[in-house]
Amino acid sequence: MRAIPESQSLDIVDLPDPEPAPGKVIVDVAAAGVNRADIMQRAGKYPPPPGASNVFGLEASGTISAVGDDVSGWSVGDEVCALLAGGGYAEKVAVPVAQLMPVPRGVDLVSAAALPEVSCTVMSNVVLTGHLAPGELLLIHGGSSGIGTHATQLAHALGARVAVTARNQAKLGRCRELGAEILIDYTTQDFDAVLAEHGGADVILDIIGAKYLGANVKALAPGGRLVIIGMQGGVKGELNIGALMAKRASVIGTTLRARPVTGPGSKAMIVTETVARTWPLIESGDVAPVIDSTFRLDDAEAAHERLNSGDAVGKVLLTLG
Fold first, then answer.
1. For tag attachment on the chain, is the N or C end more exposed, with fewer CB atoms within 10 Å?
2. Is 177 exposed, middle or buried (0-12, 13-18, 19+ CB in 10 A)?
3. One domain, residues 110 and 130
4. Largest Cα–Cα distance of the chain, in whole Å?
5. Does residue 280 fall inside a structural domain?
6. pLDDT at position 321
7. 222 and 302: one domain?
8. What is the DSSP letter of 127?
9. Contact 59, 117 (CB under 8 A)
């Protein structure tokens, strides 16, 4: 099969087709999502977990072409999308059945590749970890990103209020269309000051990390939950414990890729919750995949450049076939 394994040059090479091991299926890939984690892995800063494929790609959609032993509930010919620890930038990928998801009704097969990583990330961090409730205020850093556009829609559909940061009015306008009501241009505004005018954020979904730590704590409402899922702004920050205690707030760091496939806190649990709670909102039209652009597999370099430019709104996809 043709695939793009880990390297800095994104060369397409021929690799053996994956085999349908017990508990796994083989998916013929229609499209794969491009994520910042891929760019970090390419730079040598985010290696795949032990035992994972060294082929890029943390999500994909396609059609099941082979089924391993001990697999039930899935058949050859089923259209699926999948959360991956690696392997999506390829014509075929082996997927543990616990990480498979049906394509939601009303979503085409290529567009479905835009869903697994963002939907599982948002469900895991905003709902299962952040415990966002109706009427609460969610602050999303990077509101125009793939995660941001999905989180905005999901939170709005769940009855929460949404604040977002983005770097220009065009991006903020798109966030407004998706349900955000508090729009913050981080190039000209201090988000903590803006949030203070609204009583603070009950949940903050943060992709920046150390650079925003102090301001994030200031931006929290009493009892607020800061959930850090990225480190674009560094890994070491200074935490004012007194300010955190005064607000009875919490700071939580999480990740998705390195979680176990099954068991407590596993990908299986997150996938199950995502299909049960997010898929109906997609099928009703309350949440939709937001796709910025698509590129062919042999143009993966351009896809990475598009994502890394900071100009994308929503997901960047690679198509195969």
1. C
2. exposed
3. no
4. 58
5. no
6. 72
7. no
8. I
9. yes
Nearest CA among 113, 129, 57, 38 for reference residue 138: 129
Low-confidence ranges of the chain (pLDDT < 70): none
| Long-range contacts of the stretch 234-239 (C-beta < 8 A, 24+) | 234/209, 234/210, 235/209, 235/210, 236/210, 237/209, 237/210, 237/211, 237/213, 238/213, 238/214, 239/213, 239/214
Here the tokens at position 4 are: 């793009």
Nearest to 130 by CA among 212, 213, 198, 220: 220
Could you tell me the CA-to-CA distances from 190 to 111, 166, 200, 265 in Å, in that order?
Answer: 35, 12, 13, 35
Question: Do 140 and 110 reside in the same domain of the chain?
Answer: no
- What pLDDT is stored for residue 317 in this prediction? 98
Q: Which domain holds residue 151?
A: 121-253
pLDDT value, residue 214: 96
Can you give the pTM of this predicted structure?
A: 0.96
CB 292 within 8 A of CB 314: yes
Number of domains in the chain: 2
Give the contacts of 130 (CB within 8 A, at least 6 positions apart). Answer: 138, 203, 205, 225, 227, 252
Q: Residue 127 phi/psi, 5° resolution?
A: -95, -55
- 3-49 confidence digits (pLDDT tens): 999 998 999 999 999 999 999 999 999 999 999 999 999 999 899 99
Tell the residue number behind the tokens 């999905």, with chain if given.
150
Residue 272 lies in a domain: no
**pLDDT of 199:** 97
